[in-house]
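Hey,
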Amino acid sequence: MALDQEFEQRIGARSFARLLGEWRPRDGRGLASALADRVRLLVLDGRLPLHTRVPAERELASVLDVSRTTVAAAYDALRDDEVLHSRRGSGSWTQMPGGAGSARPQPFAPNTDPALYDLAISALSSPTDGMRATVAEAARDLDAYLCHPGYELQGIPELRAAIAARYVARGLPTTPDQILVTPGAQGALSLIVTAMTSPGDRVLAEHPSYPNALGAIARQGARPVPLPMVPGSDGTADWDLDLATAAVRDAAPKLIYLIPDFQNPTGAVLDAAGRERVVDLARRTGTPVIADETLSELWFEEPPPAPVAAHGAVDSPLLLTIGSASKVFWGGLRVGWIRTSAPMVRRLSTFRATIDLGSPIFEQVLTARLLADVEETAIARRAELRASRDRVAGRIATLFPSWRVGRPAGGMCHWVDLGSPDSSRLVSAARRRDVLLAAGPRFGLDGAFERYLRVPYVLRQDRMDEALARIAIAWSEIDRATPVVDPPEWSVA
C-alpha cells in the first residue's frame, strides 16, 4: 500500500468550508491568495490534520461559490509552499512544509531561528545559571541508579516524595504513593484520557481551552463537550458552573477537564467556592475531574486557592491533579505528574506499562533537586512575568487602542479581544513579518474565537517590543472593511 494511501484522511467540501470560516477578504479581491493563506494557517495550526485529502477543485469551488480557477490558483500556491502534495489522478494531501512527497507524520521541530519571534508557544527559557549548577549536582546523584535496570514505572522515590511535599505545602495532604511521574503534563493528560475513555465518550472541557488538551481528547476518539467561559470582572473570564452541572446531567461525560489556575488562554482563576462545587459535582455524579494545575506556581499578587483536590476527600480516585516542571523550570525537562488516590495511581501505572516503561531517570533526579528550591525559582519567575504582563498590556493599549486586554493574576499570556473576527488573518499577516502567533480558533472547537488572540508575555523585553511592533504593521495590512457581499450560508452562525 502506498504511504499516502496508508495515512490518508478525507474531508468533504462542506466540512472543509466550515473549517475555513470567514476567509474571504472584505473587499472581495485576492480570493485565491486569501484561500491559500487560510488553508496554510489551518495546517500550521493543526486544525487541518496532516495527510488529509482535500476536496477536488470543482467540488470546493461549488460549495464556496467561487470559480474553479480561484481554487486551482490557491492549490497551486499551496503546492509551491509544500503545504499540499499532489499525485496526478489521485488528489492532493496536506503536509508540513519541508516534507514534500512524504506522507509519513513529520516529527515536531521547535523553532530555533533567531530571526523569528515565536509567540505561538507560551513558555520561558531555562534559568540558565541555576540550572547548570543543579545539572552538575544531579549528575552525581545519578550514580545511585546506575547499578539498577533504570525502569521506574511510577517514578523514582525521591521525586515522588518531593512532589508530595510540595502539595502538602500548598494545603493538600499527599503521600508519595499518590504520585505518578509522567513525561510532561501532556503525557499525564494523554495517559488519563486513554486509560479512562473509549472512542465516542464525551469529555467536558472549558471553551476556550489548551489546544493540546483538546487534541488529546480527539486523538482518543472521544468528543469534547464545550463548557463556555464567560466574561469575568477582572477582564479575563469565569466558569459557568450552573451550565457545567447541566452539561454533566445531559451529556454524561466520562471526564471533566479544567485548568483552575490562570486558565490557558484566558488567565481566569477558579475561586474556592467554585472548586468546592466542582468537587461536589464529581462526588454526586461519579464523574472524574482532571485539574490541570501546571501554572499554579506562577501567581503575581496572591496565590490561587488550595488545589481542587484539597476541597474533597484527599484520597478520592475521582480527583486527578496534573502538574509539571515545565512552566517554572524548563519545558526541556519533560517531567510531569499525576496526583490522585494510591489505587488510581496503581491502575494508571498498570495501563501505562502498555505504552511506556517510565520517564527518563536523569530528568527525574534533576527535577527532584530543582523542587527542593522551587520557591526561590518561582519568586524570580513571578517577578519577571508580572513585569512583562504589565509592560505588554501597556504596549498593546498604545499600539492597538481598539483591542481589549484583561489583567490576569498569573500565568504567561493575555487573551486579547481584537474587536473583530480577524484573528486568523492577523496570524497569517504576522507570519509574513516573522512573528509566530496562535490564532484564537486554535483554542476552540468549530472555528470559534476568531475575535481573540493569545499573546504570551514570555520573550525578553527587546524582542517582545519588536514582536509587537511587527504585529502592529501586520494589523495595519489586513483588510477589516465592512463586507461588500454576504458570507456563504455555511458560515452563518
